[in-house]
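Table 4 source record.
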Amino acid sequence: MDTSWRLRARLVPHDEPKTLEVIDVLGQVQTYESPGALEFRHAGETYRLDAAIEPGTEDLFVMFRDRTSAGDTYPAGRYVYAPLPDSTGGTVLDFNRAYNPPCAFTALATCPLPPPGNALPIPIRAGELRYVEPGKKGKAKA
């Protein structure tokens, strides 16, 4: 685990209620309620990722891509959860807990793809790596 990827984040609420419309791997649109964007700093820079609420869950759901996508990690992106913010709007975004969606492992899964605004211009070198089937060459999962 790389503690430099366990980041303090702040939920910046949307001015008005927002629904994220995301495409899934089948090209269909899925919708998620979004309470706001998680804003965090890494290496002196500030970044934002829209967070979603999945029905029946207590945490913030974040779908993202970064500069490791299509190389070291799953090309379509990864997911990570963050606890709901405390009374000050703060939470922890722990990229060590980033994981591949089910569609990284089987063509039978339907996975939402990260919204266009959730593409980070930096490599997140934490969390689960790209899955490679046993017996095939390439990078294995962490």
